[in-house]
Each structure stands twice: as structure tokens, then as C-alpha cells.
Design a protein that fits this description.
This protein is α/β, with parallel strands linked by helices. Helix content is 51%, strand content 12%.
Length: 319
């Protein structure tokens, strides 16, 4: 399009879709990787496919390279969370998709997660149905974790431990320092996103049976998941943990006082200690809440992108 005088309109640059990186932490997954990587390449030929080899003893790295993936090698087994952090740091995409390398997650489900991101969510999680749980024990444990996390965060958590998710890279990297090196990174990042006020969506999926042997130990990792929920709870919403404990001490103090007053007409030292413990725990919760708010505010200030006009002003001063 041109003016009559000969000058022309500036042609706007086309709006490009955000780059996509698909990150697969893998440890001894040489058997499961070929069909998965081939399916990802067929469905997303322009996406960056990253396999983080977490100290595998088999041909995981060689197989991944042969099937067109970018391989990041860990010198030894550092844990699933450590592999996730390595992949997130080195990924080039604006949108990150994390999925297991054991064949449980279906590449066709990625599109539905990306649609959630396109509609305005910051993270979309593949929520497994009951039929996808490996056993009744695992199903009951996950239901407990989901309810506990829902209480701590104040939001409905449908699948706290799902490793299949799409997320905006910039926002995910804000919380890398919080993520553990073990298998519980989904727990931490989910609760951190809720506390940060980022929009989280759940998309129902049907997970397949994994190829090979699971590296998760139910008892050890289950206790770790529970501790991490309380750790993140006290880090981001301390009163959710301290207030019930304070209330419990107060109720015990009242019960003790009623009993001793009824029996001996006395106010005992034990009742006084329980009331003091209730007050101290509540005050500790208040202090922790303020510290958490200050820490979170500082994190937001450090991670916030600089405005375009600020950058231009700084560049002008440099010159």
C-alpha cells in the first residue's frame, strides 16, 4: 500500500507464535524414547526437543541424539528435579512442555495443554484420571496429597504430582531456586504458582503404562512429598500451618483448664503453658507471614521484565 506522493506504509512484522521447547528428563529410558521422540517430531517439527540424560547407564543419550533430540548430559544421577531445572535453564522456547520419557504421556495431549496457555493460563497441567494410577495405594496417596495441597493453597488441586505440564518459561524460571532435585518438583512448582497468583489450569488426560521400571519409591518419596507440601506452605502461606497448630494448643489449654477447675478448682501450670504455646505459635506465624510477603515482593521485583521505555532511556544514557 502506498500514498499518492510515493511514500509507503511501513510493513508490520508478522506476529510469530511463541517458540516451543519440549523437555524430557530421562534416566535409562533408551527403550521408551524412540517412539516418543518420533511422535513429537512428527507432531511438532519446529519445536526444540530436549532430553536431559540424568546419568543413564544405558544408551539413552545416543538413542535421543539419533532421533533428533538435543541432549543435555548430567555427569551422574542428580534427580528428576535437577534434570528439569537443567532443561528449563537451557531451553530456548517461550513455552516449555515437560513430560516423562517413559512413554506414559501421549504427545497428542500436548495440543490441549497449549490451548490452555493460549487462552491466558500461565501453566496447564495434565491431570490423570483414576484409571491412570498404578495402584490403589498410589491412587489414595495422590488423593491425600491433592486435598492437602488444596487446603494449603486455597485452590482446587486435581493432580499435584503430574509431571506432564506446559508453562510460560519466564514464570517457571522465577521458582527454579525452590525446586528440589528429586521427584517432587511438580508439587513445589504447582503450589508456588498458586501462591504467586499465576493462573493454573488442569486438563484431563489418560496416562499409559510406563515402559520399564519406575524409579519412584512410594514410602520414601511419599514422605518427601508431604514434607515439601508443608515446606512450601510455611514458605508462602505460613498462617495456613501455624494457625491450626496455635488453635490446637488453645483448645488443649481450655480443655485442661476446664478439667482441673472442675476437679480441684485450680488453674494449673500446664494450662498456662498451653495458652502461652498457643500465643507464641500464632505470633511466629504472623512474623513468618510478613517475612514471606517481603521475600515474595523482592522476588517479583528481581524477576519483573524491564519496560521498553526504561530500556530505551538507559540505552540513550549509555550512549
Amino acid at each position: 500500500m502506498a500514498w499518492a506522493g510515493g511514500s509507503s506504509w511501513a510493513v508490520p512484522e508478522p506476529i510469530m507464535p511463541p517458540a516451543l521447547s519440549i523437555i524430557l528428563p530421562a534416566r535409562d529410558e533408551a527403550e521408551a524414547l524412540p517412539p516418543l521422540l518420533d511422535a513429537l517430531r512428527a507432531r511438532y517439527p519446529d519445536a526444540e526437543r530436549i532430553v536431559v540424560d540424568d546419568g543413564s547407564s544405558d544408551a539413552t543419550a545416543a538413542v535421543a541424539e539419533a532421533h533428533g533430540a538435543r541432549v543435555l548430559r548430567q555427569p551422574y544421577g542428580m534427580g528428576n528435579g535437577a534434570a528439569i531445572k537443567r532443561g528449563a535453564r537451557e531451553a530456548r522456547g517461550d513455552i516449555l512442555v515437560f513430560m516423562d520419557a517413559d512413554g506414559q504421556h501421549v504427545p497428542a495431549d500436548i495440543e490441549r495443554l497449549l490451548q490452555r496457555i493460549d487462552s491466558g493460563y500461565d501453566m496447564a497441567v495434565g491431570a490423570r484420571d483414576a484409571a491412570s494410577q498404578a495402584s490403589i495405594g498410589r491412587r489414595l496417596a495422590n488423593a491425600f496429597y491433592n486435598r492437602l495441597a488444596s487446603w494449603v493453597t486455597g485452590h482446587k488441586v486435581l493432580d499435584l504430582t503430574s509431571g506432564f505440564r506446559a508453562v510460560r518459561a519466564f514464570k517457571f524460571r522465577q521458582f527454579l531456586y525452590l525446586l528440589p532435585n528429586g521427584f517432587s518438583y511438580p508439587t513445589t512448582i504447582t503450589m508456588a504458582f498458586f501462591r504467586a497468583g499465576y493462573a493454573v489450569a488442569y486438563e484431563p488426560i489418560r496416562a499409559r503404562a510406563r515402559t520399564g521400571k519406575s524409579h519412584i519409591r512410594p514410602l520414601r518419596d511419599g514422605l518427601r512429598f508431604t514434607l515439601i507440601i508443608f515446606k512450601i506452605g510455611t514458605l508462602y502461606s505460613p498462617l495456613k500451618v501455624f494457625a491450626p497448630a496455635s488453635l490446637a494448643f488453645f483448645v488443649l489449654g481450655v480443655a485442661r483448664y476446664v478439667w482441673t477447675y472442675t476437679e480441684t478448682r485450680q488453674f494449673t501450670n500446664m494450662s498456662a503453658l498451653l495458652f502461652m504455646a498457643s500465643a507464641l505459635v500464632f505470633l511466629m506465624g504472623l512474623i513468618s507471614e510478613q517475612i514471606a510477603n517481603l521475600m515474595y515482593a523482592n522476588t517479583e521485583m528481581r524477576q519483573a521484565p524491564r519496560r521498553k521505555e526504561d530500556t530505551e532511556s538507559t540505552d540513550g544514557q549509555d550512549h
